Amino acid sequence: MAPTSSVLVQPVVSDRAATQPPIITSAKTLAESATLTSLPSDYSFTEDPYQPADPNDPQYTVPTIDFSLLTSSSPGHRSKIIQDLRKVCQEWGCFTVINHGVPESLMQAMVDAYFKFFNLTEEEKSNIETNHGADRAQMKYGTSYNVGSEKVRLWRDFIKMRVHPDFHTLNKPEGFSEVAMEYSKKTREVAAELIKAISESLGLDENYIHKALNLDRGVQFLLTNYYPPCPQPELAMGLSHHTDQCLITILADNDVSGLQVEHNGKWVSVTSVPKAFFVILADQMQILTNGKYKSVMHQARVNKEEERISIASLHGPSFDTLVSPSPELIEREGGAPIYRAINYREYVDLQQRCRMNLKAALDEIRI
Which of 316, 5, 8, 319 is nearest to 139 (CA)? Predict the structure, then answer.
C-alpha cells in the first residue's frame, strides 16, 4: 500500500476546547530557551502513587525473554521459554526482549528519523498540511498536559500516527516514510510471534488470540515521545502513570533510560538495553485473560543531561472487535468473567473519558 502523505494538527491543549486552541510552547522549545533556569510552575508534578523500588533488591529485576528461543527448532527450548513467559506475564506484565531479529540499523534509523522530525521548526511541525480525512485519530502532534487533571503539563512532545491496517506517515523529514513503513512491519512481526507464544502460554492454540481479536485487521500505532533535558527533573514528569489501552506495546528508545513500571506496589526503573525491545502487556490482554495476565502501570521520568526518544509500537484489535474474557479459559479454570464484553473502539473512548476523570477504564467494565 502506498504511504498516505499526512501530517499534523496544531499542538494539543485540551480535548474539551470548543474552538481552535491557543498555540503553546513545545517542551523542546522551552528546554532550549536561554532564559530557562528552573522548571515553570505549570510543569511541577507532585502526584505519585508509588515509592521507588530498591534497585539492589533482586525481586525488582525486570525479566528478560530471549526471542530466539521462541523461534527455535528445538521443542525443549521453546517449551522452556513458554513456561518462563507464563510466569513473567502473570507476575510482571512486562519484560525485555533480546535477540528479536529486527536489525539494529533499522532501529537506529527510526530513532534518527524521529530526532530529525522533532528538530524541525515549530512552524513546520505544527502547520504542515494534513491529509487524514474525517478520522482525526490517524495523526496527532502536540505537547501535552496531564490528561487526568489538565492542571500539570508533561515534559514531553509527541507524534502519534496509525500505521496499520492503513499506513499514515509524515512528509517531513525526507526519507521518514520508508523507514517508518519498514519499522512498523518488523515490529508487527515481533508482536505477532509474541502473541502466539502468549496464547500458547495460556494453554490455548497459538492462533487463538490472533483470531479472537481479528489481528489481521488489528490497529497499530507508532506513538513517539520526545523528552528534552529538564532543569529540575525531580519536579517534572515526562508521562504520568497509566496503562495502555491496546493489547501489547513494543518499546524502543535511544539507549537513555527513563521508563518506570509498577511491580508489587513500587516503581521499578527500567534500564535501557541496547538493541533490545521492552514489551508491555496492555488492557485488552488483561480483559481477554480475565485478569490472569496483568496490564502493567508505567510512567516516564526525565533527566537533566540527556534528551530521550521513546518509540512505542502499539498493537490492538480491530476497532470493531468485541473483546471479552476467553470462554475457554473461564471454563477450564471454573471461574466467572470479571469483565464485561466491550467493543475496542468503545473501550478507547471510555479510557479517554476515564483518564479525564482520574479513573481506570478496566475498573469501569469490571462486573
Answer: 8
25 occurs within a structural domain: no
Does any domain span residue 21?
no
The three grid cell numbers given for residue 138, joined into one nine-digit string: 490517524
Question: Which CATH number does the domain housing residue 130 bear?
Answer: 2.60.120.330
Cβ atoms of residues 218 and 248 within 8 Å: no
Interacting residues of 279 by C-beta distance below 8 A, sequence separation 6+:
65, 94, 95, 96, 97, 194, 248, 249, 250, 251
E-only strand ranges, the chain: 4-5, 51-52, 64-66, 94-98, 139-145, 153-164, 168-169, 219-227, 239-242, 248-253, 259-263, 266-269, 277-281, 298-300, 308-316, 322-323, 342-343
Total domains in the chain come to 1
User: Is residue 263 in some structural domain?
Assistant: yes
Q: Is residue 188 part of a domain?
A: yes
pTM summary value: 0.90
Element at 232 (helix H, strand E): none
Q: Are residues 236 and 342 in contact, defined by beta-carbon separation less than 8 angstroms?
A: no
Phi, psi for 213 (deg, rounded to 5): -110, 10
Q: Which of 271, 231, 254 is nearest to 308 (CA)?
A: 254
Is-contact 240 215, C-beta < 8 A? no
Q: Which domain holds residue 333?
A: 54-364
List the one residue out of 8, 200, 222, 221 whose CA is nearest residue 111: 222
Torsion (CA) 56, 281, 308, 22 in degrees, nearest 10:
-130
Each residue's pLDDT tens digit in the chain (367 positions)?
333 333 333 333 334 333 444 455 789 999 999 889 999 988 998 777 789 999 889 999 999 999 999 988 888 888 999 999 999 999 999 999 999 999 999 999 999 999 999 999 888 887 654 444 434 568 888 887 665 556 789 999 999 999 999 999 988 899 999 999 999 999 999 999 999 999 999 999 999 999 999 999 999 999 999 999 999 999 999 998 999 999 999 999 999 999 999 999 999 999 999 999 999 999 999 999 999 999 999 999 999 999 999 999 999 999 999 999 999 999 988 889 999 999 999 999 998 888 776 678 999 999 9
